Amino acid sequence: MERLQKVMAEAGVASRRASEKLIASGHVKVNGHVVTEMGVKVSAHDQVAVDDVPISREAHVYYLLNKPRSVITSAHDDKGRRTVVDILHDGGVDERIYPVGRLDYDTTGILLLTNDGELANRLMHPKFEVDKEYIAKVKGIIKNDDLRQLRLGVMVDGRKTKKAKTKLLEVDRDHQTSRVRLTIHEGHYHQVKRMFKVIGHPVIKLHRESYGPLSLQGLQSGEFRELREEEVKLLKKI
Fold first, then answer.
1. Are β-strands 224-226 and 62-67 bridged in parallel, bridged antiparallel, or unpaired?
2. What is the pLDDT of residues 13-30, one digit of tens each?
3. Model confidence, pTM
4. Among 39, 44, 47, 32, which Cα is nearest to 16's?
5. Domains 62-126+214-237 and 131-211 belong to one CATH topology
6. Cα–Cα distance for residue pair 51/58, rounded to 1 Å
7. Do the beta carbons of residue 62 and residue 226 sit within 8 Å?
8. What does the alpha-carbon distance between residue 119 and residue 9 come to, in Å, rounded to a whole number?
9. Which of 13, 88, 181, 203 has its CA 20 to 30 Å from the CA of residue 109?
10. Alpha carbon 15 to its chain's center
11. For the RNA-binding S4 domain, which residue ranges apply (predicted)?
């Protein structure tokens, strides 16, 4: 027996907190009866529906995608643009999956997709501090003082970012650009781009190289693969 909100989260309906709100507002039925109180537990034999749509308790699946540019990090897009989920579905993945976190429309790189809502919510929670490594091509010649600012944290919207790891990879004096490796474990809206903008070096291109213990080794842009069992275990240990 498991708590109703946990079952909903694991089925990919919403986070536990959002599932609790759905329950409290009368959107959830168990075996045909509306449930509004917290603490209800259900078994595998109970039928759970949200807005009269039964939730599916599929086996958990985990995929790693090398996201290309000009693709939306979403399960669907109202404007009809191609999404990361479209890529996997076109590649033969039948399960209902969704991305863990977001990459901007023009940002490329590593992205995890799953139907394991519980793990997804944990990975995205700031307290678990999952390292995310980016390669950024930026305007201007980065100096040591610029990198030091990033390492110590910069002010973005009145909030100081947490300490980051940095490494200068390359400078192109002819084109006045630099390439920097930046490792952070936060994931706020446009965070990497905004950090570089604060220090006066706007991002030209951005690529996420790694996510926690996962890397893009062997994956070309637009390709994906299923995670190995040991990789899933590593994620769950974070």
1. antiparallel
2. 887 888 999 999 999 999
3. 0.79
4. 39
5. yes
6. 19
7. yes
8. 9
9. 13
10. 13
11. 2-60
Give the whole-angstrom CA distance, residue 30 versus residue 76.
Answer: 28
Determine the pLDDT at residue 118: 80
* Helix-strand-coil split of the chain, %, nearest 5: 25, 30, 45
Residue range 62-126+214-237, CATH number: 3.30.70.580
Instruction: Report which of 64, 63, 99, 70 is spatially closest to residue 205, judged by C-alpha positions.
Output: 70
Q: What residues contact 160, with CB distance under 8 A and at least 6 apart? A: 153, 154
Burial letters 37-61, b for 16+ CB under 10 A, else e: eeebebeeeeebebeeeebeeeebb
Q: How far apart are CA 35 and CA 4, in angstroms?
A: 10
pLDDT tens-digit series, residues 36-69: 999 899 987 889 999 999 987 778 899 999 999 9
| Distance in angstroms (rounded) separating the CA atoms of residues 162 and 195 | 11
> What sections of the chain are H helices per DSSP?
4-10, 16-24, 84-90, 117-124, 144-152, 191-198, 229-237
- CATH superfamily, domain 2-54, is RNA-binding S4 domain (3.10.290.10)
CATH 3.30.70.1560 at 131-211, yes or no: yes
Residue 104 bears catalytic tag? yes
The amino acid at residue 85 is V
Q: Which of 46, 77, 86, 104 is catalytic?
A: 104
| Domain boundary assignment for the chain | 2-54, 62-126+214-237, 131-211
Q: What 8-state DSSP symbol labels residue 69?
A: S
The span from the CA of 192 to the CA of 144, in Å, is 18
